[in-house]
Amino acid sequence: MTTAGDIMHRGAQWIPAHETLDRAAQLMRELNVGALPISDENERLCGILTDRDIVVGCVAMGHDPARITAGEMAHGTPRWIDSGADVGDVLREMQGHQIRRLPVIENKRLVGMISEADLAQHLTEDQIADFAHSVYARKTTN
After folding, report:
1. Distance from the first to the final alpha carbon of the chain
2. What pTM value is reported for the model?
3. Is the Cβ–Cβ distance between 5 and 84 less than 8 Å?
4. What is the Cα–Cα distance from 67 to 130, expressed in whole angstroms?
């Protein structure tokens, strides 16, 4: 059985909810990623921040990314998967919620992220086609 832990990208990092969006953008550049999980003061997942969120939800709205926090951008219920979950569960979670990135949690701690690139490296062509159709066929949220 292939698990979430098998296909995830290790080394994912939180951005604390109190950090500003300009710091989040710097961290994204340093890590070469387009999304960061947002953590609360107890290092629990409270959202995901994407580069698009920063541009569209802050800069394009005329707001200063040095004054807006990651926590202010966290909306809705964050989705995640346990590292031991089967890859089928990963697909159902991502497809069911039309998300492109999924934090992987082990013992209540962030251990990795699964992105579309990770799926492309580990899934069959049919699985990838089903994923793309379900996520891109309708308006996406992340």
Report:
1. 28
2. 0.83
3. yes
4. 40
